[in-house]
Specification:
The complex is a heterodimer of chains A (298) and B (270). Chain A is an all-alpha fold. Chain A has a single domain, classed as MetI-like (MetI-like fold), CATH 1.10.3720.10. Helix content of chain A is 71%, strand content 0%. In chain A, helix 9 packs antiparallel against helix 11. Chain A is globular. In chain B, strand 4 and strand 5 form a beta hairpin. In chain B, helix 4 packs parallel to helix 5. The two termini of chain B are 28 Å apart. The chains are: A mainly alpha (298), B alpha/beta (270). Chains A and B meet through helix 8 and helix 9 of A and strand 6 and helix 2 of B.
């Protein structure tokens, strides 16, 4: 029954003939993997990277490059509490707790920066006066390398949570301002015209046209901003913070603990990849009506 | 000029309608120049003219999406000041909202007018059935072909109960077969309406399309109304209708207006 071309049930591929039972199983497994967006070649690449890393440890001295096994063991050891770090007076020494602190900061920054940036961007795209005011400001902020602002934020807001959060918020805000503005400009005016002929007012158009119509590109921007936010948050913590995964790296760097740094970086990387995967799945679901399967492309 | 207060609910009166644009180089261009006409209630009128003649501008002014520069347009007893649900528009581009499912698109106009949910779902389902799209009610617009999307747009304006329908080259981008199928869909819906028949203003540059559809063809050239031809043929019309001598005379006339007829003065003057 699956052999007919159906535009309606969402399948775009044309199956030439009904697959035989033996093939069916392989196809099903493959399809399941595809549906979870697990790329087999990506997994193979990851394994190859670890093997290459492990191979390198036979050439490079251990003090410069720890072996993968030791790093994995270190992650397990330091996951809840890291004894080595208890001398430094950190409020949180475990990798899990530090990562949670960093992740919470990233989440706050992406949500707050994303909301403000999107609202400003949509507003600027539709109200020329607003744009005349906001464009020069945000374009200037966007041109400054964001890390240059870090020392100012540290001076103004101290080494607590909020200077790092603010730095990442500004970064996310500027990206989303541009994405939302461009999305609103690219939205075909025929939708707004059509809504108006049905008697839609400004509020209706915002809710029924502008927000859903720009959602794919805005969420694509959120994903790009999220990917960059992890690194920025870690660096902000490295430059001055009480805790977080970046702070852990800074302390370990002071004691030349390469293995510990690798462990912290690996945890950060894994969390960032998982977060992107979840965000991607959410975006795909919310914008499943969109013609382009890939989002985030402009 | 007739007093507009005497107008029937669905008729359209153009009174010396003018529209000027200022081009990028600062020069003023007159797109519509002093058009006066009266479209009767329930009439199917095609606006025909060469590209850039102002026919789409005229339609946009009836929809209220574009203000007039001079003169007035009256629909029923009311002067047009902005868009409103009494005038439904089918655009040339696909205007079906991609982020709503098909059924929600068809309901959209009724939702804005505050029709209760159950009632508007019934009406939307009925019109989807009339355009043979019941099976895709829950589909996303991206899963539909161009012709199907036009059916959705037509079902939407009919379901919304607009007295006046404005169609702006709706089938220009469709293939020959689909276009002819949609002519039938449109005419069937228009003719089967139990209420007073809706007034249709249909912009096209396709001469055969206008001859197949219209009660009356208004020719616009350089922003002016240059001809107003009544079509005296019963429906349904087919290929044979178009080859009748009287229809051929009209066709020659229209082609002459579009500048396509060689030695056209003779036929156009008849």
């Amino acid at each position: 029954m699956a052999s007919d071309t159906s535009m309606i049930d969402g399948t775009t591929a044309v199956l030439p003939s009904r697959p035989r039972a033996a093939d069916q199983r392989g196809v099903t497994v493959w399809a399941t993997l595809r549906s979870f967006r697990i790329d087999i070649f990506g997994a193979i690449g990851l394994v190859l990277l670890v093997v290459f890393w492990w191979g390198l440890t036979f050439v490079v001295p251990r003090s410069s490059l720890p072996s993968p096994l030791n790093v994995f063991r270190r992650i397990a050891d330091d996951f809840v509490v890291a004894d080595m770090l208890s001398y430094y007076g950190l409020p949180e020494t475990g990798l899990m707790g530090s990562m949670a602190y960093t992740a919470a900061n990233v989440l706050i920054a992406v949500v707050v920066g994303g909301l403000i940036g999107t609202v400003l961007g949509l507003f600027a795209a539709r109200v020329p006066v607003a744009r005349a005011i906001s464009d020069p400001i945000l374009n200037t902020v966007g041109t400054i390398p964001i890390l240059v602002m870090a020392p100012f934020f540290l001076i103004w807001f101290g080494t607590g949570r909020w200077s790092a959060v603010l730095l990442v918020t500004v970064y996310v805000l500027v990206i989303l301002y541009l994405f939302a503005q461009r999305a609103a400009e690219n939205l075909d005016p025929v939708y707004e015209s059509s809504a108006r002929t049905f008697g839609a007012g400004t509020g209706d158009i915002l809710r029924d046209i502008l927000i859903p119509g720009t959602l794919p590109q805005v969420l694509g921007g959120i994903r790009i901003a999220l990917a960059g936010a992890w690194g920025l948050e870690a660096i902000a913590e490295l430059l001055g913070a009480q805790q977080g995964i970046g702070k852990i790296i800074e302390v370990l760097a002071g004691s030349l603990d390469i293995e510990g740094i690798f462990a912290a970086l690996l945890v950060l990387g894994i969390v960032a990849v998982i977060a992107d995967w979840i965000a991607g799945a959410l975006v795909r679901y919310v914008t499943r009506w969109s013609v382009s399967a890939r989002v985030g492309t402009t | 000029m007739t007093d507009s207060s005497q107008g029937k609910p669905n008729d359209i009166t153009f009174t010396d309608v003018t529209r000027t644009f200022v081009r990028g180089d600062g020069q003023e261009v007159t797109a519509v120049d002093g058009v006066s006409a009266h479209i009767r209630e329930g009439e199917f009128v095609c606006l025909v003219g060469p590209s850039g003649c102002g026919k789409t501008t005229l339609l946009q002014m009836v929809s209220g999406l574009l203000p007039t520069s001079g003169g007035a347009i009256t629909v029923g007893a009311k002067q047009v000041t902005g868009p409103g649900p009494d005038r439904g528009v089918v655009f040339q581009k696909d205007s079906v909202f991609p982020w709503f499912r098909v059924i929600d698109n068809v309901e959209y106009g009724m939702k804005r007018r505050g029709v209760p949910a159950a009632e508007r779902r019934d009406i939307a389902n009925r019109y989807l059935e009339l355009v043979s799209l019941s099976h895709v009610a829950r589909a996303w617009p991206k899963e539909l072909s161009g012709g199907m999307l036009k059916r959705v747009a037509i079902a939407t304006v009919f379901a919304n109960g607009s007295d006046v329908l404005l169609l702006d080259e709706p089938f220009a981008a469709l293939d020959y077969v689909t276009k002819h199928q949609l002519h039938d869909v449109l005419l069937d819906l228009w003719r089967s309406t139990d209420a007073p028949r809706r007034t249709i203003l249909f912009v096209t540059h396709d001469v055969d399309e206008s001859l197949l559809l219209a009660d009356r063809i208004i020719v616009i050239r350089d922003g002016r109304l240059v001809d107003d031809i009544a079509i005296d043929a019963t429906r349904p019309r087919d290929v044979d209708t178009l080859t009748r001598p009287d229809m051929m005379t009209v066709k020659h006339k229209l082609l002459a207006h579009l500048g396509l007829e060689h030695g056209s003065r003779r036929s156009a003057a008849s």
